[in-house]
Amino acid sequence: MSLVGQVLILQVVVIALSLIVGFGWRISNVDDDMRDEYAQRAVAVAHAVAGDPDVARLVAANQGTSLDAAALADGELQREAVDVARRTGVLFVVIANRDGIRIAHPDPDELGRRVSTDPDYVLAGHDVAETDRGTLGESVRGKVPVRDASGAVIGFVSVGISTEKVAEATRRDILLTVGLASVALAVGIAGAVLLARRWRRLTLGLQPDELVALVTEQRAVLHALADGVLAVDRDGRMRVINDKARQLLSISAPVGTARADLGLTTRLQQLLDVPQTVPIAATVGDRIVLVSSHRVTVDGRDLGIVMSVIDRTDVENLTRELDAIRSMSEALRAQRHETANRLHVLAGLLRHDHVAEAVDYLDEITGSGSRGTRLTGLDNVDEPHLSAFLDAKAALARERGVVLSLGAQTWVTGVLDDAVAVTTVVGNLIDNALDAAADPASKNGRVDVELLTDADTLWVTVADSGPGVVFDDPDRVFTEGVTSKDGHAVPGGRGMGLALVRQICRRAGGDAWVAQASESELGGAVFVAKLPGALDAE
């Protein structure tokens, strides 16, 4: 039998036993309680009769043992007793004098005779409530003394209620008690059944051993996943998290913590506000992750939101290296294209014996002339990786119709400690500036780059002639996912470049920010990056 069935039977048994004990005790005492109740009722009626001054006067007038029964039968006291019995529904109202002689009785033949029960206790001035048998059969009786004006006992009133009437009332009370017990039992059983159904629904019909196995298996699978999983309920509290999610999202808070206290970035908070099933890129500390979320509902009930987190840090590192190689490749292609064109020009001049013009042209293209194509100031960049990288970016700039130049203060010595990180920062800032300067609305596009070393710290300043930062809060451009550019092939890919720049700088102990546009004569945006420890002094 299932646990739900066992619990249901146990609940029904407990309810039934409780009702049997409670109502059994009530039924076992109902007869005594009913006799006491009717006895007190008889005493109350007797008090009402005995307290009547006319009754006391008539009793005082009928003392002695030799009384005329016929006169008593027609007397006022007899009529009063019969009338009270009729009005109250009692079996009898008997009035006796100080000698115990009946002066009022339902049976006229008993008038003038001594009462059948001992009257001493009531004649001593005490109320009596008892069950006794007399000339009219067994009854529940109440006896009350009758007193004269001085308080002396001059007789008594006895009121009796038939035990048959008491028994009938007892039966009615028992039937009512049994009915109430049956209703209570039915309600208890119905409640137990409803509780069992709710339990079965909440546990999806699973037994305890099945629930234990399910929880154990799910926990093992959850923590064995290579991806992070975070779930919050509809009240915004974390309910499920595996080890990978704790590692990727840097969460140490226990299960049950409010979402606002988990330390999630704004972008991740937005994913928990509005589910996003298509993975988007996000930065968390020094990691880059792909994050998606979806709402979970069961039978129309909203259970909350589940977030999936995939680590993309290693992939992004490889992507950065690949981007650097691609940039170099594109730069070499551009340089090859430029070199081929120049050789064609040089060959044409020589074929037509324009030797002097050919020499002048050679001076120009080698940088010794007034219109050389070599990046001005590149000699001040002593670091080979950075020098080649800047030269490649200059070639790309020329292809896009943008003039890229090095600032007069540029001075770089030493060797890059992490060439990929530095070229990522410099490359993203230059690419961002080239996009702005190459905008059709921006004529004569220009990008100025200034690099300066201070011990092992590299300072990077990039200015462009574009439209500048379009946001009211310039610092917003460093927020992941924020961009003014249209579209991208990879979901969440836009708005990551500058966020990555700041992330790399801050990881190194530096920072990246937007400088005042007035600091540049180009009129566009000015970005500054500080990279401590970027160089190893030679």
Automatic annotation (TrEMBL):
Cell membrane recorded as keyword: yes
UniProt cross-references to SMART domains, sorted A to Z: HATPase_c, PAS
SUPFAM superfamilies documented for this protein: ATPase domain of HSP90 chaperone/DNA topoisomerase II/histidine kinase (SSF55874), Sensory domain-like (SSF103190), Sporulation response regulatory protein Spo0B (SSF55890)
Keywords recorded for this protein, A-Z: ATP-binding, Cell membrane, Kinase, Membrane, Nucleotide-binding, Phosphoprotein, Transferase, Transmembrane, Transmembrane helix, Two-component regulatory system
Top-level taxonomic group: Bacteria
Compartments reported by the entry: Cell membrane
A GO term for molecular function: ATP binding
Span of domain Histidine kinase: 313-535
Pfam families to which the protein is assigned, alphabetical: HATPase_c (PF02518), sCache_3_2 (PF17203)
Catalytic activity: ATP + protein L-histidine = ADP + protein N-phospho-L-histidine
Transmembrane segments: 6-25, 174-196
Enzyme Commission numbers on file: 2.7.13.3
Gene Ontology annotations for the cellular component aspect, listed alphabetically: plasma membrane
CDD domains for the chain: PDC1_HK_sensor (cd18773)
Membrane topology category: Multi-pass membrane protein
PROSITE patterns documented for this protein: HIS_KIN (PS50109)
Family annotation (InterPro entries): BphY/WalK/GraS-like (IPR050351), HATPase_C_sf (IPR036890), HATPase_dom (IPR003594), His_kinase_dom (IPR005467), PAS (IPR000014), sCache_3 (IPR033463), Sensor-like_sf (IPR029151), Sig_transdc_His_kin-like_C (IPR004358)
GO biological process: osmosensory signaling via phosphorelay pathway
Keyword Glycoprotein in annotation: no
Protein name: Sensor-like histidine kinase SenX3
